[in-house]
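FAQ: What does the model actually see?

It sees only this:
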Amino acid sequence: MRDQSYSRREVEINPFIMKHLVLIDGHHMMYRAYWAIPRTLRTRSGEQVNSVFGMASMLISILSKEKPDNLCVCFDEGDQTFRHQEHEEYKEGRAETPDDFYVQIPRIFELIDVFGFKRVSNPQYEADDLLASYSFKGRDQGMDVTIVSGDRDVFQLVDGHIKVSIPHKGYQAAEYFGRDEVIAKFGITPEQIATYKGLSGDKSDNLPGVLGIGPKTAAELIQKYDTMQGIYDHLSEIRPSVAEKLERDREQAFFCERMAVLETDLPLSFPLKDLALKNLPVDDVFDFFREMEFSLLAKRFQALLDTEYGAKHFRIKEVTPGVTSVKTESDQLTMF
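And it is asked to produce this:
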């Protein structure tokens, strides 16, 4: 782990030292919000807002819990990334998401914008590649990075300054993964995640890996031989039943491994300094909550503004607008 002690001179030269960068997997958060909040949640005009409510709730919780200095929300933009071009069946087989999820996405973009957060996407790459590139850039400039996502692909990014946070219970019980936690869960290091997927596959991405090789065997092989090439260089030492499967799907194993590797050096849509959370709008957020009839979230947002963190990062006014209350399914929303 890198030494985190810095001199005053170093801090003066590099303003990012010891800053906390939070990177959010936007699609994962939206999807989680959609299924966590009842689809019956609507405004008085009939607009369905369950995903919007859940996303807004988690954003407030992330600000309160993580206290980021810089923040960015990364999204997938299309289905023709370089991985789709190399593998036409990439991600096929996933369950179809209902239309009432997609119609809420513009509102979620609006929500992110009224908070003053930056959101990024790239039609050639996935959100995970953007998370990877921003996290490495932040780390290299002396920042501590938290990636909020439930996608295990991002575990390959974990190191002494980068951790992954998986939301649970509306981010009230976030599960954190540093290097030790990744090793404990998978039996391998973060750097070996792509090899692990190359062997055991990943149903969510429609990557078959080596047919007949499960997670346990994959971890055992990696622990002994370290890399995919190392495994194939020692096929004669591996028990015949496993070696036969490896030999049969050799090309597929290397291909799936390559597909799992995230891009970490993409050009950034916004420089890190533009992700800084300072002088963030307050009125716009309350106006949005009023329009969506999110009285509960307005109260939680006000509570955030009343903290030292809120006062430091938001444009606080003496009087904040009221919000019209809305009938909600309180039992379903308490965790948010």
